[in-house]
Amino acid sequence: MKCHQLAERIERLQPEVFPRDVARLCLLLANYVEDIGQLDGDHGLTQAWQDMGIRLQAATDQHAAMTEELEQLAGLSPDDFSADQIWTLIRAIKVQSRVLQLYVGQPTPV
Questions:
Q1: Which of 27, 36, 70, 107 is the one with CA 20 to 30 A from 9?
Q2: pTM, to two decimals
């Protein structure tokens, strides 16, 4: 299966999806499965789409929460950071890494 074939199938299943979202879904789905042939059947595509959607939603929720915490930290002087705030920064880096891994196709560490 080629990317344009996958895009056509996604557009048939959800015609209201914007082109940029179709492209994003193609990338995420292709990176999610080991063999893109797993997406040939409707069941395989639907299952991968749902699994990827759950992972992406979890990462998006984590990202939104971390963004809020980082915005609060941005108003402070780094000299005033507590140990908890340093851990917030470390968690933010890990969340960003997880989101990036979804897009580049690297396995997410457990």
A1: 107
A2: 0.64
Question: Which residues span the domain enclosing 39?
Answer: 3-104
Number of folded domains that form the chain: 1
Mean pLDDT across the chain: 82
Query: Residue 106's pLDDT is what?
Result: 61
pLDDT digits (tens, 9 = 90+) for 47-63: 888 888 888 888 888 88
Position 74 in a domain: yes
- Classify residue 89: in a domain, yes or no: yes
Helices (H), 14-82: 19-32, 42-74
- For residues 110 and 107, give the distance between their C-alpha atoms in angstroms, rounded to a whole number: 9
With 0-12 / 13-18 / 19 or more C-beta atoms within 10 angstroms meaning exposed / middle / buried, residue 68 is exposed
SS3 107: coil
110 belongs to a structural domain: no
